[in-house]
Design brief:
The chain is an alpha/beta fold. It has helices spanning 52-64, 83-93, 108-117, 131-138, 143-155, 174-183, 198-202, 204-207, 211-228, 288-294, 296-299, 317-320, 325-332, 348-358; strands spanning 21-25, 69-73, 96-101, 121-126, 160-166, 188-193, 233-237, 257-260, 266-267. Strands 7-6-5-4-3-2-1-8-9 form a nine-stranded mixed beta sheet, covered by helices on one side. Helix 1 (52-64) packs parallel to helix 2 and helix 2 runs parallel beside helix 3 (108-117). Bound molecules: iron/sulfur cluster (SF4) (2 copies). One iron/sulfur cluster is lined by residues 245-246, 310-311, 314, 316-317, 320, 322-323, 338-339, 342, 344.
């Protein structure tokens, strides 16, 4: 496929910088079934995975286009037995390499091979500090394994980076999650409050915390920060449902981030696949440089010309670029609308309704929908998720 479009921003804005951050989603396969999984809800219907040679070519093309960081994720990237080959090539090309893993498959042997291949960084995810909830939320018995994997990571000399997605079910455990990170010798802990896309959007009613839960968790995190000092760096990512302005999503559409899906589609963020009416290019048909600079999909929401009111004339538009296109689509039905997190959005009431419901105690929410686990049997077409 060869499409022509301007090299500079379609909106007449500044020149387009390089895709500094490459996210290589090697597979949608995963032994876990997390209720907040960020993979698409129709992941089971994706096309065949790219082969090793395709990925090697993508790495070379992305590096030539200016990428400097490469994250290998999935699903579970360790399910690819060519992971070491890909890491070695990324390392040879000069990428800073990062593996995002559930830990399943990270044996001593594979860790040694990945170390030899030059892997710089591993991020290990936990679902909770307790075995019961960790295993419930992932619908697997993986808690003990993750603890062993943390030791493996340390024993090979990598910094220990622990990630835990935070939501209504586990937010009251924030203290013990921090203590687990300390016990495992983590240098970094990312407490990533759930954002409501993909499987987390399906399960929002059960995952969105109350304001009181959130405030307690943030205060406790600050207490631990003071107590622990330089021993561990703790990142606490606030959920945008409790804001009145949206985040500058992915630092701007097609600005820094490039995601390649297991079946080769190039996306400006890992959830953009849900957006209808956008013909996302595929690395099987088009070179990375052409995708980044010349594909209509990557120009679609660059700059400001695409904006509708209230963003079009908003004095704050440079701060947040209108927020997240996926959230705008999910909640308003039109990806070119303002992100409904913004209090100026006509659909902001949908966020307020969800937040108001989240304040009710669980005993008064007996009509909450049961959790849907990420599983091929539960896969469904992507949709708006929330009807006004
Ligand atoms: S969020 Fe859970 S189910 Fe989804 S890819 Fe990660 S480990 Fe697998
Ligand atoms: S109206 Fe649009 S540009 Fe203005 S603050 Fe809200 S989301 Fe941002």
């Amino acid at each position: 496929m060869s499409e022509s479009a301007p090299q500079a921003s379609a909106s007449g804005g500044p020149e387009i910088g390089p895709p500094l951050w490459l996210l290589a989603e090697l597979t949608y396969r995963c032994p876990l079934h997390c209720v907040f999984c960020y993979n698409p809800v129709d992941f089971a219907h994706a096309g065949p995975e790219l082969g090793t040679d395709d990925w090697l070519r993508v790495l070379r093309e992305a590096r030539a286009a200016g990428s400097v960081q490469c994250g290998f994720s999935g699903g579970e990237p360790l399910l690819r037995d060519d992971l070491e080959v890909l890491v070695a090539e990324a390392h040879r090309l000069g990428f800073y390499t990062n593996l995002l893993t559930s830990g399943v498959g990270l044996t001593q042997e594979r860790a040694a091979a990945l170390k030899a291949a030059g892997l710089d960084h591993i991020q290990l995810s936990f679902q909770d500090s307790t075995k019961e909830l960790n295993d419930f939320l992932s619908h697997t018995k993986t808690f003990d394994l993750k603890r062993r994997v943390a030791d493996t990571i340390k024993s090979h000399g990598w910094p220990m980076v622990m990630n835990c997605v935070i939501h209504r079910q586990n937010i009251d455990h924030i203290g013990t999650i921090i203590e687990l990170a300390v016990e495992l010798g983590a240098e970094y802990l990312e407490l990533a409050n759930n954002q409501y896309y993909s499987w987390a959007a399906l399960n929002r009613d059960q995952l969105l915390p109350s304001r009181a839960q959130l405030q307690r968790a943030e205060a406790l995190t600050n207490d631990y920060r003071q107590k622990l000092g330089d021993r561990i760096r703790i990142f606490f990512v606030v959920p945008d449902y409790y804001e009145t302005r949206p985040k500058k999503c992915m630092n701007g559409w097609g600005n820094v981030f490039l995601t390649i899906t297991p079946d080769g589609y190039a996306l400006p963020c890992h959830t953009a696949r849900m957006l209808p009416d956008i013909d996302f290019p595929n690395v099987r048909d088009m070179r990375v440089d052409d995708i980044w600079h010349r594909s209509p999909a990557f120009h679609r929401f660059r700059g400001f010309a695409w904006m509708k009111e209230p963003c079009r004339t908003c004095p704050e538009q440079e701060k947040d670029l209108g927020g997240c296109r996926c959230q705008a689509f999910m909640l308003s039905g039109d990806a070119a609308n303002a992100d409904p997190v913004c209090s100026k959005s006509p659909q902001h009431y949908l966020i307020e309704q969800a937040v108001a419901r989240a304040q009710l105690p669980d005993a008064e929410r007996v009509d909450a929908k049961p959790l849907v686990f990420r599983d091929p049997a539960n896969a469904r077409p992507a949709s708006r998720f929330f009807e006004p």
